[in-house]
């Protein structure tokens, strides 16, 4: 659960003495080996503030790979876990550029810090006063923070361009007008992650009802069954450096006309590749080519495998399986050059791997009931050559492809 920060903790950590103390604690290792020594040293110097200081330094270190400017931010453990990575938040903010926006579950301000860079007026609200206090600290360098939260009213946003207005408010009770709404319902129920829309906090159906007819973007877990939602707008699945991070529901007023599914692949500092269901999806039916390609997870989760194949001159190994094949590997993608096609019998696989002096063995599986780790243990590769074994289904038959992997 992490340390429970109080309002006094946040006020101290944001003050000049707190900033200086955090810089001092940040010089410590705070590893398992140095834990007792470091904690004792902080307690001798900072007394009751020690826990808040140590937890903040630890959270900042965890946040460094996820959030820009994390070395200056404040966090709680739960809020950091749910915070949108900076690259993803920046992408969403760019889609909302020029709009007045209200983040109704603003938490510690990860979205606000990016929105205020491209949106004229931004409101952040949350029920948790601790997270609001943290958000005020975290976004202070991104834009002017209004001191009077009462400026948020039914008449809309008041105040100068670039102002962030913060208010304690229930996400299910609209308190602005003329704004595009962003929401990020908490995805944990009873301490466990949930994919049930009604178990989110606030519940997704209630959130959609509260803002019916409004321009709305809702961040969701990519594991949600979007078809069951009967969502009338666009579902965008976003990956970051190869890992699927989220899905975002965009209402019709914020989406692109004619688009219901979008895959956005974010790479590096500013690489963005987008694919939608409005793109062509005509692909040939052919025998396996020279390569097998496993599309980015955002493409697979958005149901745009055929569209990706059409864009890159590829085709499917099987119409119901997401593996693609072709005679070239798209730029920036990892491919698997087919060396041989084998029967999916362990004796056959073991014999062939031993003959080829297989050592490091990567096993990829899709469409068949095979545990890669258990199979690797049974095959017992012990040679020196690295290979990839792709096991899948073509029609009614399981197939194994022995491959050499390329590097993107």
Walk me through this protein's architecture.
With 408 residues, the protein is α/β, with parallel strands linked by helices. It has three domains: 7-63; 82-274, 3-Layer(aba) Sandwich (Rossmann fold); 291-405. 30% of the residues lie in helices and 25% in strands. The protein is built from 14 helices and 21 strands. The protein has helices spanning 7-14, 16-25, 35-46, 50-63, 77-82, 86-95, 110-118, 129-138, 204-210, 226-229, 297-301, 305-312, 346-355, 372-379, and strands at residues 101-103, 122-126, 144-145, 152-153, 156-157, 163-168, 180-183, 188-189, 192-193, 216-220, 234-240, 243-250, 261-267, 271-276, 291-293, 315-316, 324-326, 335-342, 358-365, 385-394, 397-405. The strands form four sheets. The chain has a ten-stranded mixed sheet with strand order 3-6-2-1-7-10-12-11-13-14. The chain has a seven-stranded mixed sheet with strand order 16-17-15-18-21-20-19, with helices on one face. Strand 13 (261-267) and strand 14 form a beta hairpin. The chain starts with 6 loop residues before the first helix and ends with a strand. The model is unreliable at 146-161 (pLDDT under 50).
């Amino acid at each position: 659960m992490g340390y429970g920060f109080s309002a006094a903790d946040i006020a101290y950590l944001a003050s000049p003495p707190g900033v200086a103390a955090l810089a001092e604690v940040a010089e410590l290792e705070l590893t398992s080996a140095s834990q007792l020594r470091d904690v004792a040293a902080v307690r001798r110097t900072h007394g009751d503030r020690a826990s808040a200081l140590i937890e903040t330094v630890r959270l900042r270190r965890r946040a460094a790979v996820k959030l820009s400017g994390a070395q200056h931010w404040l966090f709680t453990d739960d809020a950091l876990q749910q915070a949108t990575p900076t690259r993803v938040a920046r992408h969403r903010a760019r889609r909302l550029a020029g709009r007045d926006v209200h983040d109704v579950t603003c938490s510690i301000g990860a979205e606000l810090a990016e929105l205020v860079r491209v949106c004229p007026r931004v409101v952040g609200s949350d029920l948790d006063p601790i997270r609001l206090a943290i958000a005020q600290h975290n976004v202070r360098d991104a834009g002017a923070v209004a001191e009077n939260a009462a400026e948020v009213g039914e008449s809309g946003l008041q105040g100068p361009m670039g102002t962030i207005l913060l208010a304690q408010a229930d996400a299910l009770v609209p308190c602005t007008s003329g704004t595009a709404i962003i929401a990020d319902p908490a995805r944990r129920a009873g301490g466990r992650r949930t994919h049930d829309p009604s178990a989110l906090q606030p519940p997704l159906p209630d959130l959609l009802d509260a803002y019916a007819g409004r321009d709305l973007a809702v961040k969701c877990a990519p594991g949600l069954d979007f078809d069951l939602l009967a969502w009338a707008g666009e579902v965008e699945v976003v990956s970051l450096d190869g890992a699927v991070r989220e899905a975002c529901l965009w209402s019709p007023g914020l989406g692109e006309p004619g688009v219901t599914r979008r895959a956005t692949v974010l790479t590096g500092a500013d690489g963005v590749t987008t694919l939608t269901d409005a793109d062509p999806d005509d692909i040939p039916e052919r025998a396996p080519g020279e390569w097998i390609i496993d599309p980015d997870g955002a493409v697979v989760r958005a149901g745009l495998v055929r569209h990706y194949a059409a864009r890159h001159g590829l085709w499917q190994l099987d119409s119901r399986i997401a593996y693609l094949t072709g005679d070239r590997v798209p730029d920036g993608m990892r491919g698997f050059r087919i060396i041989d096609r084998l029967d999916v019998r362990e004796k056959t696989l073991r014999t062939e791997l031993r003959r080829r002096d297989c050592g490091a063995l990567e096993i990829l599986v899709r469409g068949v009931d095979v545990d890669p780790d258990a199979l690797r243990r049974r095959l017992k590769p012990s040679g020196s050559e690295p290979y990839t074994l792709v096991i899948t289904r073509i029609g009614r038959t399981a197939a194994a492809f022995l491959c050499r992997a390329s590097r993107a």
